[in-house]
Each structure stands twice: as structure tokens, then as C-alpha cells.
Amino acid sequence: MRLRSWIGCELIRCNARLRGDAVTRRTLLTGAAASAVIAAGGNAFAKQAGDCDRLRSVLIGHRSIVSSAAFSPDARQIVTASYDTTARLWNAATGAGLNVLNGHTDAVYSASFSPDGKRIVTASTDGTARLWDALGGSVKVLLEGRGIVRDATFSAHGRWLATISDDNLARIWDARAGEALSTLAGHTGGLTCAAFSGDGRRIVTTSYDATARLWDVGTGATLALLEGHQGPVWSAALSPDGMQIVTASMDKRVRVWNGQTAAEEAVFDRHKDQVLAAGFSPDGRSIVTASLDGTARVWGAATGASVAVLQGHAGGVLAASFSPDGRQIVTASSDRTARLWHATTGDLVAVLEGHDRPVVSTAFSSDGRRVVTASDDGTARIWDTRP
What we know:
By secondary structure, the protein is mainly beta. The chain has no helices and 34 strands. The strands form eight sheets. Strands 1-2-3-34-33-32 form a six-stranded antiparallel sheet, with no helix packed on it. A four-stranded antiparallel sheet has the order 4-5-6-7, with no helix packed on it. The protein has a four-stranded antiparallel sheet with strand order 8-9-10-11, with no helix packed on it. The protein is globular, with a radius of gyration of 19 Å.
């Protein structure tokens, strides 16, 4: 049994709940949700009616688990990754399918846009990551590693690209030329997450070896070894100003570290099961965590105080993230729903229902007006954050 987790690092969230069985193409809108159905290229269905008026589109076309979904920086497109060996591009306004990114020979774990929206990077079980032209859908560069490539992520300025693999290594690439710049060696277990600092000069990685490491991107040197967790570390994130690091682990704990000295600043130990993800609010003042105990929690980044407990899911919480303005949080759960919450009070804003299998990935659009969810049921869905 393996775990995967998506939040700031967007991949290793919960293989514990991934069964790997194929999902056949089918229409999933029933009852009130079927009151208005609009076909788009045979791949997408849209509805806006009744109690589900937040649901904007259902993206249908993948033939297996949809492992991740992300908006383009301008919020006009969505890219999805699937275990069916493809990634797909969609029109975020209409739900129409735009392109199919074919080339991988095994499951695609993640797909995301570059900060300028011109490129897409995908990571796959086939041992490669691929850089694609976002407009034409053609492969620009093949990034070959060893073993399963768990994730690939751009730096904020778009110049660098990091991949993580089961061979215990992270690799830094020139995101335009696709040239390997450095190999980050030091972990003794497969990697689970990688996250750049805002300025792109540092990167933090997490591993099955129960540690996180902070690296200098330019030299590939280890700047700090973050030890203390008693089990695999599933995710990590740096605060927007780079002054703090947060890590989440199988040991049910979240740890906050000084981003400069690597000294441990706080331990959050109120979750009752594995913590799959942790990330900072846009202003860096708060941290949200997601756990298999069925809750997400909001914490004060400076004080470590518990701010809010987001309760209501009937299954493990697999992902949680802040909206761009920091006012809302979206969570995804094995209970087949996503939920919107008030970030300060923890009050429930909306339940996003419709998927018929676990929801494994969520992301806000850059303007905060929409959320996209990805599910084991083989679909992605676009929702309005306001009714």
C-alpha cells in the first residue's frame, strides 16, 4: 500500500485509496444534476441548474482514474492527467475538449502549466517526464529518469523544473531547453514531493526515508536535513517569503521549520491519522493540513495555534488548499466530495457533490472564482466558488 498526496507539491497523495481499476466512459449526471446536459465534442458535459448550481462542467473523456487537474495561469484552460496514459486539455469556460497529449506508455501521475502558460509538464510511471507545447500539444522535450517519475513541478519564475523519482533522486532541469542541470542525491528512500521557494533558489524534497531536505538549486548541495518525523514524509511547502517550511507525515504530525536555519519551530500533533498534505496561505500567516482522520485543520504559522477544524467529510481528506485571496479553503475526500470552507472561521460554505469515486485533487483558478476537482471515477469537474 502506497500513499500519494497533492497540495502545494501536488503529488503523492493517496495511493492507499487508488485501486488501479479502469473506469469506463459513462455519463455520471443523475437526478437534479441531469437537468441540463450539453455535449461538447463528445467529451464534456455541462450543467447549471437546481441545487447543483455551482457545477459548471463535467469533463469526460479519460478512460481511467484522473490523478490531477490544474488551471492555466490565465484560468482559460485546464489540464488533466490520467492513469489511461494521457493528459488532456480542456476549455475552462465551456468544458470542451481541446487536445489529447499522447506519448506516455504508462499512467500519468501529474500535469501542470508553466507560469507563463506556454508549456505543460507531465510525470509518468513510464520513467519519464515530458514537456509539451500548451498550444499545439506537441512534445517539446523528453526528460528521462530512472524508475517511476512521481511528480514534476516548475519554479515560480518558470526557468527551472524539478522531477522526483523512485530512485531516491530529484533532478533539476532547464525548463526551456530540457537540459539536466543537477541531480539531488542524499535521500535513502523514494521521493514523495518537491517544492521550490518563491525565488527559485532553493527546493525542499520529502521522502519515504522519514526526512525532508532543503537544497541549493544552483549547486545541488544539501543546505539542511530536516529530521524528526517517525514515518514517510508525504509533502512539504515553503512559506511565500521562504522563512518557514512545513512538512506532513505518516506519523500523524506536522512540523514547522525555520527556512533559514532549519531549526524546528513547532509540531502540530492533533490529527489522529496520517497527514497527507500541508501548505501555507498566500500571506504565509496560516497553514492548512489534510488528514486521513477525516479533517483538515488551519493553524497559525507563527504561533502554532489551532485556528479552525474543518469537520464534515465522511472519509479521509486527501487534499486541501487556500484560494488565491486566502479567504476560502477547498478540500477533497475519499467520501466522493469536495468542500469549500471559510478559511478563518472553518464554517462550511458548500459541498461539491457529483463524483461517484474518491476526489483526489483540487485546484482553484487564479481568480478564485472556480475550482476543478479530479476523481478516481475518470472525470474532472469544474465548479463555481460562488453560487
